[in-house]
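Listing S7. Sequence submitted for prediction.
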Amino acid sequence: MAAVDNDLDQAVDHLRKLGVAAAAKRSGNSATEGLVAVAVSEDGKRGAAVELNSETDFVARNALFQGMLSNIAAVALDVVPEQQEGTATSDITQQLLAHSIVSDDGTTSTVGEAVEHLSGVIRENIQLRRASMMTIGTATNGKIGQYVHNAIGPNQGGIGCMVAIGVNHDENNNDAELMDAMDNVGRSVSLHIAAARPLYLDVDSIPVEDLEREKSVHTELGLASGKPANIVEKMVTGKMRKYYEENVLVNQKSFVDEDGLPMSKVVTAIHKNATNDGFIRMEVGENM
């Protein structure tokens, strides 16, 4: 205790600094295990998904790790993303790392500092890899549904998914029933997203370069086979239809509906004007 003049507060600070230093030494270690947590606000208008990584799966099952992740996911809902109209998805990783958080011991710090401190306590490299937020505009009648796959903690698991379900208002809507229906279909669509791995919300959201690349590949393959250009064009149309069914959420056939309906029709089953307005799918360790 001589190094801190027998002052208990200084001793605590000294030990915390040692923990941070040790965490810095481990920062180069590979951290590809961990958990994803999702959190949705009470009004269903804001949702956050957070991935916290560790070196081993064992640590991801630690109560301290899961408690920190739950705390971070809750704090993420307080982050204010850039203002956007309608339903929007934002990367809030840097904002969240700089946001204040109160740890279980009552200590206030930034999220980044809290993660660093936890790394020192657990003695593994722990990293907040990413965080995303989905928001539904106040003028939109909609709710965010969620689902966590392989859950091993409260709203925590290997895959976290969220979807925004919107409905254009009309005078005949029964709001209470519609909100309940949105909750149910939101979870179903989120479950589908976990299994089907959509890349895009709808055809319009596919980058032009991705579309052109896909069409070019099938066109070249068709022409190389010696088929006439008009036949190749029809072949490409069919291949693109399959591409949409495999990669576009609203075109995918439902994993949760016995009839295998397109996801757009699964949603309109609750209301003729219901739509999928956005989604987030976050899997531990996936390439970004």
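Caption to Listing S7: primary sequence and predicted structure tokens for the chain studied. The chain has a mean pLDDT of 87. The radius of gyration is 23 Å.
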